């Protein structure tokens, strides 16, 4: 009958395998082969194209942010395998299939350079844990649910959803962050060339902080995110050389919204603030250029423009969503989506 052969890396658009003399198997036998491969372990390596993308905004500069593209692609369902591949050297696209409960509670899984960590469909989740990066370069994190590390036990902790220290070129996109122990997203210690896009930040106190440095060198883009009933740091952008915030939707913010802190140079465009306290604030030394924003049922500070801001279009191309359309657009598109990776 010939010799059956197949590879653990294959084009997912093909629905057959071959005998050595090119006899095609029917679809049900192909599926049987795949199921047998899955049965032998929680990691399945394959070659696909639907889950790969390059970053926009400031993350597209400095050589670009491509994550693990061009490397090995693996699907993981356990913490052991996630830790193995996320911390490995070399390029990996790591697809998280379903919920992975992280132990001990609040542990931040180390992510090394040249990695993509992406959820499959809408079920990819890091439950009661997060991700930690230190000195890494070229990392993409997309399409994941991250959080539930807050025990409400009154104990001070540093359990972040994602903590990135001194990282260059990172793109965080289409994630859902909620109920963290400390910050949902902390970009610290000169983390630069970052883009944070299409995420949901929900029901939290210290939400999204950028800074923890005296240097004024970092550059970042923050767009089309939904800040939903969070308190402070939405985000707090401290000592950024350039930060571009556009088309975000802030709703039910109880302390302050976008904050240009320290010596930050901020451009804020077409952001929709609704039921937000102190929607736009700045320190005296910060530079702010805000335009096209909407303030609906807001109270408190709306900072005036000051200083000479930068023009994002001199660095990268982007298209502004009309401000009136931002709430509908962002609520329909932010967070994990099957269209991102399935």
Description:
By secondary structure, this protein is mainly β. The protein has 2 domains: 1-40, no CATH class; 45-333, Single-stranded right-handed beta-helix, Pectin lyase-like (Pectate Lyase C-like, 3 Solenoid), CATH 2.160.20.10. Helices cover 8% and strands 35% of the residues. The chain is built from 3 helices and 30 strands. The protein has helices at residues 27-39, 79-86, 326-333, and strands spanning 4-5, 18-19, 44-45, 72-76, 92-96, 99-101, 108-110, 115-119, 125-127, 130-134, 137-142, 145-147, 162-165, 168-173, 176-178, 185-188, 192-197, 200-202, 208-211, 218-223, 226-228, 236-238, 240-246, 249-251, 258-261, 265-269, 272-274, 280-282, 287-291, 294-296. The protein has an 11-stranded mixed β-sheet, with helices on one face. The longest helix has 13 residues, at 27-39. The two termini are 35 Å apart.
